[in-house]
Write a structure and sequence with these properties.
By secondary structure, the protein is of the alpha+beta class. It has two domains: 154 residues, Double-stranded beta-helix (4-Layer Sandwich), CATH 3.60.130; 73 residues, no CATH class. It is 20% helix and 25% strand. The chain contains five helices and 15 strands. The strands form four sheets. The chain has a seven-stranded mixed beta sheet with strand order 1-2-13-5-15-4-3. The two termini are 21 Å apart.
Length: 250
């Protein structure tokens, strides 16, 4: 993975509380997202209401089911390793909301409580993954769409609406088929594509720190949870997402 993927905010806003940024400084954040796909802001002091307020500066936050959200704040999803409070974590490569006709473009992830060990998140640059595709694999996925359990189809190659860059776009945990291929051929293609995305030299393993906020662009970045059973201690993250738009095929 290109080192630029995991980037702390440095374009004029390093060391700042994000809630205090003016409009010009916020444009530095947008530019960093367009360039790097993922930006990290350590040492933030955010309440759930603060996270919603900051998210609104990028667009309209999505709402989550009551069973997954902070009490009385449906815009904030709780992501935790406590099995009593949340469903199993997606330990597979995906982008948030691929099962939606208009997936969220940006995700905000705030570390409210981190375990003493474990609980990392894996990131991969989906744009670099596309750029590095072997010619045969690039041809195989060109024009094809992933089929999700609902019947929704999403292109395997997505174009970024702001930068125009192409990226691999796939939810490897929920895809049940690929257009134009039988089941065995689809499974084989998904295995090959997943192996390409998850090459050790291109994967960033991110260890969270208390109070850290990560923002990533779901068009540019694929991510995966790690096995929650490997964590020692409670992990509590708050997630917001910005309402998206229909996927632009590449």
């Amino acid at each position: 993975m290109a080192p630029a993927l995991e980037t702390t905010l440095s374009a004029g806003v390093a060391g700042r509380q994000l809630l205090d940024l003016d409009d010009t400084e916020l444009e530095h954040v947008r530019a960093a997202l367009d360039r790097d796909g993922l930006v990290l802001a350590p040492d933030q002091r955010l309440s759930p209401d603060d996270l919603i307020a900051f998210t609104r500066r990028f667009g309209e936050p999505e709402r989550f089911p009551e069973s997954r959200a902070v009490a009385d704040l449906p815009e904030v999803c709780i992501v935790t390793n406590d099995p009593r409070q949340a469903p199993a974590q997606p330990v597979y490569w995906h982008t948030d909301g691929a099962q939606q006709p208009e997936p969220p473009r940006l995700s905000f992830f705030y570390a409210a409580r981190v375990p003493t060990s474990g609980g990392e998140t894996l990131f991969a640059d989906a744009r670099a993954a596309y750029d590095d595709l072997p010619d045969q694999l690039r041809t195989q996925i060109s024009g094809r769409r992933a089929i999700l359990p609902s019947g929704l189809e999403q292109p395997l190659v997505r174009r970024h609406p702001r930068t125009g860059r192409l990226a691999v776009y796939a939810d490897f945990g929920r895809t049940v088929g690929i257009t134009g291929l039988d089941r065995d051929a689809a499974r084989a293609l998904l295995r090959e594509l997943r192996a390409h995305v998850a090459r050790p030299e291109t994967v960033c393993v991110h260890r969270w720190t208390q109070g850290e906020l990560a923002i990533w662009d779901n068009v540019a970045v694929l991510h995966s949870a790690t096995d929650p059973g490997r964590s020692e201690g409670l992990r509590v993250m708050w997630r917001t997402t910005v309402r998206g738009e229909p996927v632009v095929p590449g």
